[in-house]
Write a structure and sequence with these properties.
Two copies of one chain form a homodimer.
Chain A lengths: L7 H8 L3 H8 L7 H14 L5 H8 L4 E6 L5 H16 L3 E6 L4 H13 L4 E4 L12 H5 L4 E4 L9 E5 L1 H14 L5 E5 L5 H16 L9 E3 L4 H12 L7 E4 L2 H13 L9 E3 L16 E3 L2 H17 L9 E4 L2 E3 L10
The first copy, chain A, binds a DNA duplex (16 and 16 nucleotides) through α2 and α4.
DNA sequence: GTGAAAGCGCTAACAT
DNA sequence: ATGTTAGCGCTTTCAC
């Protein structure tokens, strides 16, 4: 039934060459004559030869495969970042195995173990929401398998991290609201478990301080940052004695849920409440008024992360010395926060 | 530098056993004494042994890996479908290698070759926009490696396809516009290269016919269905002598670009022009008025596709006999198309 | 119940 | 420019 697999030995035999030459020819080794190569390729094609990666991996002791673990695949930011990663990985001839932690530390650990047993050459990780320690990555450190965190990162001596300056972005966002005349600025964010949320909170607080405003615990709402949670947050706000006049939300989806509910309740945006989100998600230009937000290079972050890891693996560059790569992010001012004439 | 990998030989040596016994013990082979097994496991753990999948795969001629090729990773639908696939694949103990064709047939062929060389046990494919033939999958058919298409499918005797009834969905969408009193209904779609667009066009045409309306070539706009293309389509429409009074767009993003531009030009939606999109993308509930659209089970489609393939591989079920699985889709009526009192 | 031995298909150091 | 050779780590048939 199953036609037998063709190997380099079959090719070698038929061409009166050694397997070594065939192997080299197939790899486009410079030391092989053009004509020989051509003969090899032609026969390979004719017989339907395909290289056996397992044999090759076994022999070379590397797998040419990178692993990636993300909280979820189906968010705009993540799928964009992964697209960037894939484009580089594919170009460089590596494979990619992907898994999602579903924001659970336990699943993240299980995924890490799978990646480890599959002997990935390197691992790209964006941490799950509730991951506290990273001891589940210890086996990688022990074996000197490079691990690179992106976006949701954690400090570790062995790892490079790629992310944006969340503190500064949040600072800019909040300061912008202050400049637009807001005096009572709320912040909607997630539990302070990950760098991204901690840093955004810090930036928010620092901007308040520098802008001469009091930080007020009551103006901070913690939720899961979903669109629905944003709507719920709006209800909470509406029950306050006094609405905030500006809100900095740690992601666009949640901001939009909140805006919609407020607007339905008759609140004017940005007149009564000005909004700034985070991520520059496509929805931010669909909502009316368009949402001011922090633009955040997902695709490029993915590319950069993958390229760094691969350069390190290929010996072209090393990430041993690189601790952090901080990418640029920008405040994009749109109608949701514009309260002053330009 | 690198601590050496522990192999079954290391274990065998230390335990005064043969590698064969260790291999059997690790695999829980019945012929091995309980106590021996325990000794093996304990030492394996102690030394941090991990089985080498490549050697094992090489020997066993099987990989426990599925491949997946999609047009792009960063669309809402695709990332959702992939999330569904991943959840099943992970649960079943398979690995997943992912690549994107970037809508190019050439890249798709290259990706297919990579998957083939990686000896995936099965392949899940959603076709690139400009793929015409599927001869690049021939090697899989020849080797009886199961191939399953989802969403963007093509007819082939050896493959199962999972998709929705695009014709019917489009028919319903268009008929809905007719029921809302539209007389001049435009259709914005992509070039007629893929089943999804061909079928949606057919449904559109059939609904026109059944609704007693003339099909008019001039009311069909072909573009790449991006949001920008939608905006451009709006410009085209605005230059017509008479605007259409209803538009069925083959995806939500494009619909939204078109709506925004029309509204900026003072067109009332749905009063002057009613809109129906396709996909139920998150933006469809953000745009004002909310977009009527076709809801379309991405996550479940992914799960179903992966489960089918794996059941086939495990021998639990066979897909040989299954030609097509058609999933349910629904018209979700929202404000963008409501012209009649309820 | 355990061992010996023969590969799976490829690569790379070392020849020539 | 090409060949020889010795494995990579595992599984499995056949012995004992």
């Amino acid at each position: 039934m199953k036609p037998k697999e063709i190997t380099i030995y079959d090719l070698a035999l038929k061409l009166n060459l050694s397997p070594a030459t065939v192997s080299r020819g197939l790899k486009d080794h410079p030391a092989i004559k053009k004509t020989t190569k051509k003969k090899i390729f032609d026969l390979a094609k004719e017989l339907g030869y395909r290289s056996n990666n397992f044999a090759s991996n076994l022999r070379r002791q590397r797998t040419n495969t990178l692993g990636i673990i993300v909280p979820r695949l189906n968010s705009h930011f993540m799928s964009t970042a992964i697209a960037g990663i894939e484009s580089v990985v594919n170009k460089e001839g590596y494979n990619l195995i992907i898994s999602q932690s579903q924001e659970s530390a336990i699943k993240e650990a299980a995924n890490a173990a799978t990646m480890f047993n599959n002997r990935v050459d390197g691992l790209l990780v964006s941490l799950a929401y509730d991951t506290k320690t990273i001891e589940h990555f210890e086996p990688f450190f022990k074996k000197h398998i490079p691990l690179l965190f992106f976006d949701r990162v954690i400090e570790h001596e062995n790892c490079t991290k790629i992310f944006i300056d969340n503190r500064k972005a949040a600072y800019d966002a909040t300061l912008h609201l202050i400049e637009q005349g807001c005096k009572r600025i709320a912040h909607i964010t997630a539990m302070q478990k990950r760098n991204v949320y901690v840093d955004r909170m810090r930036g928010y607080q620092e901007a308040l301080q520098d802008g001469g405003l009091e930080y007020d615990d009551d103006l901070v709402i913690i939720n899961n940052l979903s669109q629905e949670a944003g709507a719920a947050a709006a209800e909470t706000l509406l029950e306050m004695d006094e609405l905030p006049d500006g809100i900095f939300v740690a992601n666009d989806n949640c901001a939009i849920g909140c805006m919609q509910t407020l607007m339905e309740a008759g609140v004017n945006i940005p007149g009564d409440v000005a909004f700034v989100g985070f991520n520059n998600d496509p929805v931010s230009t669909v909502i009316q008024p368009n949402l001011t937000t922090i633009n955040y290079p997902g695709y490029q972050m993915g590319e950069l992360a993958a390229q760094n890891l691969i350069n390190h693996l290929n010996g072209t560059a090393t990430i041993e010395m690189t601790n952090s790569i901080i990418m640029r992010s920008d405040l994009i001012v749109r109608a949701s926060s514009k309260r002053l004439p330009e």
